[in-house]
Amino acid sequence: MSRTALRICPLCEATCGLTLSIDDGRVTGARGDRDDVFSKGFICPKGAAFAAVDNDPDRLRTPLVRRDGELREATWDEAFDAVAEAIRPLVERYGPHTVGIVLGNPNVHTMAGALYPPVLIAGLGTRSLFTASTVDQMPKHVSSGLLYGDAYAIPVPDLDRTGHLLLIGANPLESNGSLCTAPDFPGRLRALKARGGTLTVIDPRRTRTARLADRHVAIRPGTDALLLAAMATVLFEEDLVELGDLAPHVQGLDELRTALHGFTPDAVAPACDVEPGTIRTLARELAAADSAAVYARIGSCTVPHGTLAGWLVDVLNILTGNLDRPGGALFPQAATDRTPRPAGPGHGFALGRWHSRVSRHPEAKGELPLSALAEEIDTATDDGEPIRAVITVAANPVLSAPDGERLDKALASLDFMVSVDPYLNETSRHAHVVLPPPPPSRSPHHDFAFNTLAVRNQVRYTRPALPLEADRMAETEIMARLVLAVTGQHGADPSAVDDLVIGRTLARAVREPHSPVHGQDPRALAARLTGDNGPERRLDLMLRLGPYGDGFGARPDGLTLEKLLAHPHGIDLGPLRPRLPQPLKTVSGKVELLPEPIAGDLPRLRQAIAERPAGLLLVGRRHLRSNNSWMHNIPALTGGTNRCTLHLHPADAERLGVRDGTPVRVKGAGGEVTVPAEVTDAVRPGVVSLPHGWGHDRPGTRLRHAAGNPGVNVNQLLDGSLLDPLSGNAVLNGVPVEVSPADTGPAPAATAAAPTASATGPSGTGA
Ligand SMILES: Nc1nc2c(c(=O)[nH]1)N[C@H]1C(S)=C(S)[C@@H](COP(=O)(O)OP(=O)(O)OC[C@H]3O[C@@H](n4cnc5c(=O)[nH]c(N)nc54)[C@H](O)[C@@H]3O)O[C@H]1N2
Ligand SMILES: Nc1nc2c(c(=O)[nH]1)N[C@H]1C(S)=C(S)[C@@H](COP(=O)(O)OP(=O)(O)OC[C@H]3O[C@@H](n4cnc5c(=O)[nH]c(N)nc54)[C@H](O)[C@@H]3O)O[C@H]1N2
Ligand code: SF4
Ligand SMILES: [Mo]
Fold first, then answer.
1. I need a labelling partner for 337 at 20 to 30 A (CA). Which of 313, 382, 662, 721 fits?
2. Which residue ranges does the record assign to the 4Fe-4S Mo/W bis-MGD-type domain (predicted)?
3. Domain stop point among 517, 544, 569
4. CB contact burial 335-351 (16+ within 10 A = b; e otherwise)
């Protein structure tokens, strides 16, 4: 029997609506949903491969439990029994901080990942929280926390209305956008140009996005904060600062001007390897545009001055009056946002409320750096116990975080590890219990995270396209049961977790004077929630209390789950609107332009003016048909140009004696890898590029296709010691490496036509 079903695509941040073809109980195809209110039919090759991703035969079908050293298929009851038996005694004996929680990227792409980790963390009471945020966007959270008092108040560029986009360290033609949810990002960039707008791209590589730009600046990696500081200085010097409507909401302008003294284009140009005249032009163009937005991503975050770069992006938007105005950068308002409170001073944003045990890294947003996970497991100190058990949810840090070799060994040494993951991969192979969620077609979907970062306010929800198969468990239920198992409530009804959250949320809401349910009876309100299950009732609750909600009757036309279900292609909530000062939660109630931790970090940036790395610098790259570490097992998405090769410039290749297609040895502080060279002038001289998420050659995994073309783990080149100090974010770009031809040395035998790739750790042991 054939039919179709709608499903929001979970494979990147663009959140396109898909129409799935379903035949005989399985997904057989996917196309863009033309009626989707946001994506309007757009689809990319990954979304088009949804069926292959969904049907991958290597997805685990049942839980696995380790017995006598081996992972064996088990029932759900056996699996959760094993979790409860192992974790509770550890917590009781050594304390909650000895249980580490590791949350990976796909948590922002599942409902389970949005709804349950907060309960898990709070329920366990552990401070050992590590997430993909500290190999990604933590600097932006910290800069937003400091500027606006809210780590989640991240302005997004108004792509559809801006007249000028300055795009830094992002490649949306491959990534489809990040911290800027915009289905058909490429089309929106073309539309910008078609309406007479301009696009400038700053990237050490001439990416597909850069090729679309009116101007491409091939900066030396890691120096964007210097360039942005110099742009701000030009605005001050040339009297181009114009706050406009922002003026009453901003404090610290004079202090900022003083603090940036000396970061002139002439001073920073040699470090950035960008002409001073170009930097001045960038600043003048930004100031002259009718509307403009500065937007920066991975290449600006995963660098030594990531927080300062993130801060300076917003500073430039503010100095040119582009923050919070149409065509500039605005704060989205999602349907599940908390009821907006009246504007006024807040509690501000605290950093470093506690520190990691070994290297004393400050927490940021309640998290410790993922780079420090291995040492928190394998290093003893006098003050406190090491991590003895780890819970990973949708995380593959052995490939995604610096120094996978060390982490690999550390995970193998744990007393206990549980992984919620559909695959047995480089990380989950160490687990004692693996809890596999069903494929995406059998999960409901709502983008809690990405709707708060979208270029248009809208709301969509899709129920599972297919029912759960026998012996399967919804990921929401897996997570609820996991919460119960590790908090001493093993065996209780999983809906208890949802009821607890609903009860607490309503109890708080009825106390808030600005809430539409102020003063009402929380139990009576809870009884009015609709939905087939706990997660749906929680969605209903958030929608009804949210900024567009029905307020449980206060605004009868407002949103409810029922109303959303009646609009399967979503509900458009309009373009982004100016919102200041309401989103501000700083102590002053204003945008605090020069927060103290930022001022304290500026001397480090000043030192960087004198730095001129002599050797090669490594940067990453993404490919349209890939996604971090987990999509190399899909034959339809691998091959062609999606390969793990080292891009290097012809001039560097000639100097090093490297020929295209031959193996090269790349050496970094954490280890070395041997990988085929791809000589291309798409990278600037002095820069080499290797994609991440590869290195699928470890034993004990079940990724049959990926293992056939494993690639190498770029993160083995890092030793985990390079961090942005304010955010704890790993430095993954602009990393010094040495490159040499490998075809003459003792590296593994390789033919020029089909070089094999291999990775070795710092000790030289084969991976
Ligand atoms: N050198 C370098 N390293 C990088 C980066 C880089 O640019 N360069 N990028 C960094 C960034 S931005 C990120 S976000 C991280 C990502 O790194 P991770 O956080 O490790 O995320 P992924 O590799 O996307 O996937 C992690 C796991 O999620 C599992 N998974 C997939 N779907 C689901 C699901 O529905 N439910 C559950 N429970 N699990 C699922 C996969 O099987 C996989 O094991 O990598 C970082 N690492
Ligand atoms: N197809 C695909 N899509 C994805 C992913 C994927 O793996 N594949 N991953 C998803 C995830 S988790 C994320 S976080 C997003 C990331 O989304 P993007 O940030 O758009 O991702 P990248 O393609 O890594 O782009 C980063 C760019 O920064 C450049 N760069 C490196 N160092 C520097 C520097 O010092 N300065 C400047 N100015 N540029 C620099 C790199 O050359 C690269 O082109 O993509 C998401 N979407
Ligand atoms: S752009 Fe992203 S959300 Fe859209 S179809 Fe492709 S992978 Fe899915
Ligand atoms: Mo990411």
1. 313
2. 2-58
3. 569
4. bbbebeeeeeebebbeb
Distance from the alpha carbon of residue 718 to the mean position of ligand 1, in angstroms:
17
CA dist., res. 767 & res. 697, Å (int): 7
Atom 42 of ligand 2, residue of closest alpha carbon: 205
| pLDDT per residue as tens digits for the range 393-405 | 999 999 999 999 9
User: Which pLDDT does position 383 carry in this prediction?
Assistant: 86
Q: Write out the E strands in 576-730.
A: 591-592, 616-619, 646-648, 663-668, 671-679, 687-689, 723-724, 729-730
In a domain, residue 235? The reply is yes
Report which residue type is found at 277: G
Mean pLDDT across 545-549:
98
* pLDDT at residue 744, as a whole number: 61
Cβ atoms of 91 and 99 within 8 Å: the answer is: yes
Q: Is residue 761 part of a domain?
A: no
How are strands ordered across the β-sheet holding 2-8? 2-8, 17-23, 26-32
CB 139 within 8 A of CB 726: yes
Phi, psi of 329 (to 5 degrees): -120, 125
pLDDT digits (tens, 9 = 90+) for 326-384: 999 999 999 999 999 999 999 999 999 999 999 999 999 999 999 999 999 999 999 89
CA distance 80 to 485: 7
In a domain, 274, yes or no: yes
- Report how far residue 255's alpha carbon sits from residue 232's, in angstroms, rounded to the nearest whole number: 13
What would the two tokens of residue 339 be?
């009821």
pLDDT in tens, 687-698: 999 999 999 999
Return the CATH number at 637: 2.40.40.20
Q: Are 598 and 36 in contact (CB under 8 A)?
A: no
pLDDT in tens, 118-156: 999 999 999 999 999 999 999 999 999 999 999 999 999
Nearest atom, ligand 2, residue 733 CA: 32
Residue 748 has pLDDT above 80, yes or no: no
Per-residue pLDDT, 716 = 97
Domain boundary among 13, 31, 54: 54
C-beta of 540 in contact with ligand 2 (< 6 A): no
Residue nearest to atom 23 of ligand 1 (CA): 629
Q: What is the Cα–Cα distance from 252 to 737, expressed in whole angstroms? A: 40
Task: For residue 12, give the ligand 3 atom closest to its CA.
Answer: 2
Among protein residues, the one whose CA lies closest to atom 2 of ligand 3:
12
**Which residue's CA is minimally distant from atom 8 of ligand 3?**
47
Beta-carbon contacts of 739 under 8 Å, excluding residues fewer than 6 positions away, are 616, 646, 648, 652, 656, 658, 664, 665, 666, 667, 688
Q: Are residues 539 and 414 in the same domain?
A: no
Output the CA 181–ligand 2 centroid distance in Å: 14
Phi, psi of 532 (to 5 degrees): -80, -15
Rounded percentage of the chain residues whose pLDDT exceeds 90: 95
Interval between CA 104 and ligand 4 midpoint (Å): 9
Q: Which mutation among 619, 646, 680, 684 tests ligand 2's pocket best, with the greatest number of atoms within 8 A of CB?
A: 619
> What residues contact 493, with CB distance under 8 A and at least 6 apart?
none
Please check whether residues 142 and 271 belong to one and the same domain. Answer: yes
**Is 631 touching ligand 3 by the criterion CB < 6 Å?**
no
For residue 581, whether the previous peptide bond is cis, meaning omega lies within 30 degrees of 0, is yes
Amino acid letter, residue 145:
G
179 lines ligand 3 (CB under 6 A): no
Ligand 1 atom at shortest distance from the alpha carbon of 109: 35
152 and 31 part of one domain: no
Residue 390 lies in a domain: yes
Domain match, 426 and 510 both: no
Q: Is the CB of 8 under 6 A from ligand 3?
A: no
Give me the domain span that covers residue 725: 610-741
Report d(CA 730, CA 721) in Å as an integer: 8
**How far is the C-alpha of 256 from the C-alpha of 224, rounded, in Å?**
18
Averaged over 428-434, what is the pLDDT? 98
